[in-house]
Each structure stands twice: as C-alpha cells, then as structure tokens.
Amino acid sequence: MSILDDLKYTFRQPDNTLKQLIIINVLVYLVFLIIGTPLGWMGYGWLERMALYYLSLPSEPMAFLFKPWTLITYFFTHEGFFHILFNMLNLYWFGMIITEYLGSRKLLSLYVLGGIAGGILYMIMYNVMPVFVERNISGLLIGASASVLAIVVAAATLLPNYTLNLLIIGPVKIKWIAAALVLMSWALADDSGGNAGGNIAHLGGALLGWVFIKQLQRGNDLGRPVLAVTDFFTNLFKRKPKLRVSHRRATSSARTNGSTTTSRPGTPDQNEIDRILDKISSSGYESLSKEEKQKLFQASQKD
Questions:
Q1: Which among 98, 82, 76, 61 is positioned nearest to 174, based on CA atoms?
Q2: What is the SS3 string spanning 195-253?
Q3: Distance between CA atoms of 103 and 93, rounded to whole angstroms?
Q4: Which positions are tagged coiled coil (predicted)?
Q5: pTM
Q6: How far, in Å, CA of 128 to CA of 199, rounded?
Q7: What is the pLDDT of residues 164-190, one digit of tens each?
Q8: Dihedrals phi, psi of 57, to nearest 5 degrees
Q9: Which of 51, 105, 279, 287 has its CA 20 to 30 A from that of 233?
Q10: Dihedral through CA 286, CA 289, CA 290, CA 292, nearest 10?
Q11: Bridge partners (DSSP) listed for residue 259
C-alpha cells in the first residue's frame, strides 16, 4: 500500500479526527519545507513567503477583510520544526483524552473553535490595547497553539486529576500541566516577549476550552455549528449509494396502531450524561462505576 493509499484510508475511517488533524498539519509543514528550500536556493524564496502570507492571520482588520479564510488556515500552518513538534505532541496526548471520553467530533469542535477564539482575541488586542496601538505593532499569526491549548484546558477541566507520566518529571496531574501552560502564555503576552501575538492567541484558546466543557456540562454543545458546517462539506464529496428497493413483511412487533417506531435501547439521555460529567468534574473519572463509564462511551458514539 502506497503513502497515498494510507492517507486515503486514514481520511475515510470514521472517528479518526485526531490522526487527521495531525496529518493535515504535518503535510502543510512538509509542503513548505520540501518546496520552499529549493525555491530559496534558486532565488525564488519570495514565492514561499507570499504563500505563507496568504495562510497567516493578519492583525490589521483591513488586511483580514481581503483574506478572511486565514482565521482557519493559520492554525494548520507552522514554520519551525520545534513549533510543530511540540504542538503535535500536545495535540496527540491531550487529544487522546478528549477522544476517549467525549468522542472525535468534540475534539474537532474544540480544535476549530479554539483556533478561532485565539485568532479573534489576537486581532482585538492588537487593535484595542494601547501598548500595541501606540507603537503601531502589527504582525502575522500562524500555528496550532491556540487550538491545542483549548484541547489541553478542556481535558484538564473535564478530568483535572487525570495523570500523565512526563519524561524526567514523572506522574503529573493534567490540571497542573494546563495551569503551567496558561501562566507561561500570560507571562509572555506582552510586546517585549517576541511572540506577544502568539501568546495572546494561546489565552483565547485556553478560555474557549474551559468555557466549552463548562457549557457541555450544562447541556450546551458549542460545537454544533462547527459540526454542521463540516458535515455539509463532507456530504458534498461523499459518494451516494445506489438506491435499492426491497420488500419484506412487517412483523407484528413493529406495528403499533398502524405506525412504525424505532429506538436505540440503552442510549443514555442528556440529563444522565450531564450528571456523569458533573461527577467527573467533582470526583474524577476514577469515581465512575462501570455502568456510568459505559454510558459515557455510548454518548460519545452518538455524536
């Protein structure tokens, strides 16, 4: 099986969002690396810089009006090796947690909404805060850090006592990892830090991750618009099956007063899921019974 076949298989698999997000980020990085290097040798490095410009989110509102797609494309674009390495490692570690307990579709919602929230906060701060306005500071934003930090904070909000074994340090609860990353971004979110815009975007993503889980625990899924849009475009390119007409006799159990009903036995309702999420938030995932874990898993498959 070729690399292209492997990629096709990965994107055809259902509930495979984590791998798909990592592959998209890595492919964009590799395209710039593989094509941009020889362009620089031949004196055409400006072509790479121009392509990067049209994928990067600008801080100036007028520039954004001419390329609004950058509010999405910027969080799939990286330039430095360590930049993409650390982002993809954190996306994998914490994305696995979100996928396991909330499902792949919630992970996609967090990634997209976290990136959008980070980008919007970045543009607002650069055009409202005096420290940036008076010094006429502007810039371009790239990288998935805001999206990734939204996922990190969401996982820590949902399962604060979940423990990861870090190299050298050892076991650490993810609430402390999330707190350290947020505090680091807060400390560096000034114009003297060299990456003020990036750290401001991190804070926007972190806030979104916290709000997303808190709203989910109240029964409100902020990711529904994202899923509606992605489902629309997915269905546009999905091959429609051929229609087949078949006839079979209806059983007496399928007919009640001339109507037919179907149900999914064992599927938990929203109130039950909210109760389980509240229990996780207060006592940790380990406090759930086997039956409650199964119900949470069933609910994640439902989306």
A1: 98
A2: CHHHHHHHHHHHHHHHHHHHHHHCCCCCCHHHHHHHHHHHHHHCCCCCCCCCCCCCCHH
A3: 14
A4: none
A5: 0.78
A6: 16
A7: 888 888 899 999 999 999 999 998 887
A8: -85, 120
A9: 51
A10: -100
A11: 256
Instruction: Please give the DSSP secondary-structure letter assigned to residue 159.
Output: -
Measured at the CA of 26, the angle between CA 8 and CA 43, to 5 degrees, comes to 115
Question: So what's the pLDDT on residue 194?
Answer: 67
Q: Distance (Å, rounded) from C-alpha 105 to C-alpha 110?
A: 9
Residue for token digits 């007028």?
Answer: 62
DSSP for 49-110 reads: HHHHHTTSEESSHHHHHH-TTHHHHGGG---SHHHHHHHHHHHHHHHHHHHHHH-HHHHHHH
**Stretches in the chain below the pLDDT threshold 70:** 1, 134-138, 191-194, 238-268, 281-286, 290, 297-298, 300-303
What fold is seen in the domain 3-231? Answer: Rhomboid-like fold (1.20.1540)
Bridge partners (DSSP) listed for residue 57: 141
Q: What is the pLDDT of residue 260?
A: 39
Domains of the chain, residue spans: 3-231
